[in-house]
Amino acid sequence: RHISSIEQEPLDVIDSGPFFNGTIGAGVLGVGGRTVNFGKIKAYDYFDLSARFTASDNLSFTFTVQNLLDKDPPLTGNNAGSTSFNSGNTFPSTYDALGRRYAVSARLSF
Questions:
Q1: Which residues have a Cβ under 8 Å from the Cβ of 10 and sit 6 or more positions away?
Q2: I need a labelling partner for 11 at 20 to 30 A (CA). Which of 32, 51, 63, 79 fits?
Q3: What is the DSSP string of 27-67?
C-alpha cells in the first residue's frame, strides 16, 4: 500500500497559520526531544503478506499479516484537521494506527 507524500498549502491559502516545525520540548511524554515538521508527511509504504493453502477440493485456508514491518503512522500534531479525522495526532483513516495484525480464515465449499 503506497501513500504519497503531502505538504501544507502555502500560508496565503489557509487561515490557520503554519504547522509546528522544530524540536518538541523534553517534557512531552513519548515524543519529547524529537525534531518534527508537522507541515509535511513523507511518502508511506505498508507491506502486507497473504498466503492461501488448499487442504482439499472443498477446504482452503488463508493467512494474512497486515503492516508486516509494523510501521508507525506519522505524527501530525493536534491542529491538522478536526478530532474526527485527526484522532491521536495522526490520520487513522489513512495511515495504519493499529500496527501489525494477523488474520486467519477458512473457506469450506460443498
A1: none
A2: 32
A3: TSTTTTT-EEETTEE--EE---EEEEEE-SSSEEEEEEEES
| Residue whose C-alpha cell is 460443498 | 110
Place of cell 491542529: 79
CA-to-CA dists, residue 78 to 17, 54, 59, 71, 73, angstroms: 13, 47, 48, 21, 14
Phi and psi at residue 37, to the nearest 5°: -135, 100
CA angle 95, 26, 80 (to 5 degrees): 35
Tens-digit pLDDT profile for residues 76-109:
876 666 666 656 677 888 889 899 999 999 999 9
Q: Which amino acid would we find at residue 23?
A: T
